[in-house]
Amino acid sequence: MKTMILTSAALLGLGTAAFAADELRSVYDTDEDGYVTFAELQNAHPDVSMESFYEADTDADGLLNAREIAEGKTEGLLPKGDEKG
């Protein structure tokens, strides 16, 4: 039973990561380099502050990857909607 729960949790995590990567490419990453700059994020969500961006940037490289975007949404740092505006 424990193995089944762990397997389900792992698959859910992989699905979430795959969705986040697709969303990154289709909504945010306008230059298609695999990362989202503050300017790209503001293009999709003008109300996001630089402070929220840098809090979501957990590896402090000045860019957001799919994991950081997903976690930023979960933590309420970034808007949850994937549509522009």
Your description of this structure?
With 85 residues, the protein is mostly helical. The chain has a single domain, classed as EF-hand (Recoverin, domain 1). Helices cover 59% and strands 0% of the residues. Helix 1 crosses helix 4 and helix 3 crosses helix 4. The radius of gyration is 14 Å and the shape is globular.
Tell me the name of the CATH class. Mainly Alpha
Tally of strands: 0
Strand content: under 5%
Low-confidence spans: pLDDT under 50, at least 5 residues?
A: 4-12
Main sheet attributes: strand count, strand direction, barrel closure: none
* Overall average residue pLDDT: 79
Question: CATH homologous superfamily - what is it?
Answer: EF-hand
Q: How many domain units?
A: 1
Q: Architecture, according to CATH?
A: Orthogonal Bundle
> How many individual helices?
4
- Backbone CA Rg: 14 Å
Structural class: mainly alpha
Helix content: 55-70%
One letter per element, helices H and strands E, the order comes to HHHH
Q: Provide the CATH topology.
A: Recoverin, domain 1
